[in-house]
Amino acid sequence: MFAARVARAGLRASAQQFAVPRTAVVNGVRSYAAAAAQDVKPPVALFGIDGTYASALYTASAKTAALEQTSKALTTLGEVLKKDPKLNTILEAPTLSVSDKQQIIAELQKIAGADKGDIIKNFLATLAENNRLGALGGVCDQFATLMSAHRGEVELNITSAQELDNKTIARLEKAVAKSEFSQGKKLKVVTKVNPELVGGLVVEIGDRTIDLSVSSKIAKLNKALTDAL
């Protein structure tokens, strides 16, 4: 695993977040995106450090027609980070030396795969230079948001008490696609599991939420009984 390889390289993990002045971060992002065309803009406005880096990466990728390739690379990196929490601890370590960062970038590049125009390499180097490697997971999520908007997708979040089978997910997607909630856009289905729901589902699309969970029904019943007493 990547975390093990990094550990063998002599890195010391730390949970403490290393903070640098915001001016350094912003200037780092600006220098990274300086070569991007002025007329290339992200489809939606994002905020915060993660959003700023994701927007700069989107602009740089769009200029070189590498959006899909960059998206695939960040999706892969994001999945690896979520599967191995130890990686985030390593990336956030405030004691990383220049050599440590170079080794981490090299490993991350291997995971990301092909890199047209060194987009990913330059992006990771910028994060490392500004001591923001710990923000990588957030940037991956924010970039996915930009790509969904670019593709004209609307996110359909389905939360259930237990993992749903593909047939059930397909039926829900089909039902929502035919409803007014989809607004005629392509749906991007995201499934989550939350045992606290007890049973049923919570469906979120855009700014709308349909709560069909057992926990919600129990809460309403408890409120009704309390009010009656």
TrEMBL record:
Main location: membrane
Compartments reported by the entry: Membrane
Molecular function terms from GO: proton-transporting ATP synthase activity, rotational mechanism
Signal peptide start-end: none
Cellular component GO terms held in the UniProt record: mitochondrial inner membrane; proton-transporting ATP synthase complex
Keyword field contains Cell membrane: no
SUPFAM superfamilies assigned to the protein according to its UniProt record, in alphabetical order: N-terminal domain of the delta subunit of the F1F0-ATP synthase
Keywords, alphabetical: ATP synthesis, Hydrogen ion transport, Ion transport, Membrane, Transport
Record-linked Pfam families: OSCP
NCBIfam families: ATP_synt_delta (TIGR01145)
Family as reported in the entry's similarity comment: Belongs to the ATPase delta chain family.
Entry-linked PANTHER family: ATP SYNTHASE DELTA CHAIN (PTHR11910)
Name this protein carries in UniProt: ATP synthase subunit 5, mitochondrial
